[in-house]
């Protein structure tokens, strides 16, 4: 299946969708990203792993244009993020969906409206079109019966699944996921990961995922990037990174988390 109502101009599978070229990012004297290079091809599922504080969220925030790099260039579907006019930035942001650890649903809106709000106001969809899309996505995340609930009436796992549906409703070319299960009670984690596995399996959306769930990473990833001290220190298919890592630092890290 294509992503429900996939973008009118989807990137060709296998072409480069995201590229970081010599990107550095500093906070004061703290160099978080140091001359970082990596790319993600369209349609692929790439997972970033690495120790706390190593800069994984910073990478996603740069992609969301919430931060600016100090050096280097970042491109998404061929468009450079910095420098870019406000209009160009708005266009690039439409290509990117993000789900955070904290789901931040609009508390005063029912589930359906949480999902239709941005497609109507940002993409200009009619209310009917947006609602139809929202219902399909709620089906996909297993919450077809929750259209009329308010976020506080849902469990954390259900809220996170709504947040995933809300991100997909914008028909992004790439979905960024930042430790989306780490704020959940343990018994709710599996349901959310199952939904993401389904999305990975049944849609053609590109995924860039930060996770501490190593089994999940192993299942869905085409490529795993081990990240430390501002660089990708090792990358490869999950069998290689988890089964036979080359770098001592990777072995150490996996030894601590597995
Ligand atoms: N806005 C900010 N101002 C100052 N320092 C920041 C800011 N955002 C992040 N940092 C610092 O940058 C470094 C990387 O942070 P980042 O959130 O990217 O790490 P992470 O790999 O996502 O860690 P975790 O696994 O704990 O989520 C940390 O040392 C952090 O303190
Ligand atoms: Mg983080």
UniProtKB/TrEMBL annotation:
Return the Gene3D superfamilies for the record: P-loop containing nucleotide triphosphate hydrolases (3.40.50.300)
Membrane topology value: Peripheral membrane protein
| Pfam families linked to this entry | ABC_tran
Keyword GTP-binding in annotation? no
Looking at the record, the residues that make up the ABC transporter domain are 18-254
GO cellular component annotations of the record: plasma membrane
Subcellular localization, as worded in the UniProt entry: Cell membrane
Q: Which PANTHER family match?
A: AMINO ACID IMPORT ATP-BINDING PROTEIN, GLUTAMATE_ASPARTATE IMPORT ATP-BINDING PROTEIN GLTL
Q: Matching NCBIfam families, A to Z? A: ectoine_ehuA (TIGR03005)
Q: What is stated as this protein's family in its record?
A: Belongs to the ABC transporter superfamily.
Name of the protein in its database record? Ectoine/hydroxyectoine ABC transporter ATP-binding protein EhuA
Lineage, please?
Bacteria, Bacillati, Actinomycetota, Actinomycetes, Kitasatosporales
